[in-house]
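Our preliminary data section would be incomplete without showing what the modeling component actually yields. Below, a chain of 119 amino acids is followed by its predicted structure, encoded as tokens that our downstream tools consume directly.
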Amino acid sequence: QVQLRESGGGLVQAGDSLRLSCAVSGRALEYYAIGWFRQAPGKEREGVSCISRTERITYYADSLKGRFTISRDNAKNTVYLQMNSLKPEDTAVYYCAIGIFCSNLGDYWGQGTQVTVSS
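Predicted structure:
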């Protein structure tokens, strides 16, 4: 059974940093692209970032470039999202998801971790 478990969320102030983790079990992460999505209250889910199987391709939403960094550790079956200079508009539930390519993530999803940024 494939499971994705996010962690690292919390309540921080604007300008602070957080590092989210997504641990994958039941499958070897090396065979998958993996990415992050977020959903704020009353808004649609949006793609945040993705990293390909080979790490040659990384994707970031335009509004997040320069502040967020995605990385993966296949030996630990874990992907990370380093979030710097957080803003109140980054407040959302953050989810990770895997797929063969960044263009078709969603084979499996985590349960989400809450990030709240106060002003």
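The two ends are 40 Å apart (CA to CA). DSSP finds no helices and eleven strands in the chain. Preliminary results of this kind motivate Aim 1 of the renewal.
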